[in-house]
Amino acid sequence: MSLYPLVRPLAFALDAERAHRLTVGALKLAPRRRPAAFPDVLRTTVAGLDFPTPVGLAAGFDKDAEVPEQLLGLGFGFVEVGTVTPRPQAGNPKPRLFRLREDRAVINRMGFNNAGQPAAFERLLDCTRSHGIIGVNIGANKDSADRVADYVAGVKAMSPVARFLTINISSPNTPGLRQLQDEGALRALLSAVEEARGGDGPPVFLKVAPDLSEGEPDQIVRVAIQHKIDAIIVSNTTVTRPLLKSRYRDETGGLSGEPLKPLALKALREFRAASGGEMPLIGVGGIATADDAWERIRAGACLVQLYTAMVYQGPGIARRIARGLAERLDRAGFANIAEAVGTG
Ligand SMILES: Cc1cc2nc3c(=O)[nH]c(=O)nc-3n(C[C@H](O)[C@H](O)[C@H](O)COP(=O)(O)O)c2cc1C
Q1: What pTM value is reported for the model?
Q2: Does position 310 have pLDDT exceeding 70, yes or no?
C-alpha cells in the first residue's frame, strides 16, 4: 500500500521547493535497491542501450545526481539527472517553483540551479556499476561567454559516468538558450558536440521545446541526423499558457504537467512526421497514466519520461504505468514495445 496519500497533504502544505528538498533528503535515506524485475515485454533497446521498461524519470528532479539509484529503485526504467552546467550556479531568486494544483501542473523558473559538473561526476562515479540506466542532461552556464564551449566541456566531463547524454537547448529559464534550436546555431552546436564525443562515448540525445514554429521540427531532425544525434526528447516545458485556473498561472517560467500534454503530443507527432521513424523519439510532457504513455508510444515514442505527475501521484507512478503498458501490449497483441511504436 502506498503511504503517499497520507504524506501528500504534508508535502503540499510546504513551499514547493522545500517539499522537493525534503523528498530528495528522504530518498537519500532509502536503500539503494536494485531496480525491480519487470515483465520481459517491456524490455526495449534504444541507441544500443537495453531499457528494462520504457518509463523514465525526466531531467530536473535530481539535478545534482544525489539519488539516481534510489529513483531507479522506485521502478523507473531509466533516470536522467541534471541539468548540470560546467560551473556551479545558484539559479534564479526564490520563489521559483509553483504547484498549480487545480491544473495538475507546475511552473518553474529554477534557472539551472546546480552544484556543477565536477560534483555530479564524483557522485556518479559511485553508480557506474549499477544495473540501471542513468543519463546526464547538460547545459550552459547563464553567464557563459561561449555556450557551445560549455556543451563541449559537458560532453567531455560527463561522458565517462553517463550511459547517455542529453543536450538541453530547450529550457526557457536561461535567456537565449532556446535560440540554439535555430538551424544555423544548432548546426554549429551539434557539429562541435559530434567532434567532442569521439568514437566510444555514450549516445547523445537532444531535448527540444514544445513551442516550435512550423518547419522547425523538420530542420531540427535534419541537422540532428547529420550530426549523429541518437534520439530526440520531445519535449521540455512550455512558455505558452493554455487556459489555467490556478492563481499562479501568470508566473514566469516553464509550464509542465496536464496542460502541457496536448502540446507535447502534437510536437511529438510533428517530429515523427519529420523523421519518418528514422530518429528515435522520447515522449515527455503531461504523462500521468498508462494510457498517456501508450498514446505517446503509438504516436512514435520508443521511450517516455515524466516528472510533474509524480508530484501529484507519488512514487508509485513508474511501476503503475509500467504495469499498465504491459497489459496494453498484451491486449493489442504486440510482443514488445518496439512493435507498438508509431502504430497509432
Ligand atoms: C521543477 C522542474 C525542473 C525542471 N528542470 C529541468 C532541467 O533542469 N533540465 C531539463 O531538461 N528539463 C527540466 N525540466 C523539464 C522536465 O524534464 C520535463 O521535460 C517537463 O517537466 C515535462 O514533463 P512533465 O509534464 O512530466 O513534468 C524540469 C521540470 C520541472 C517541473
Answers
A1: 0.97
A2: yes
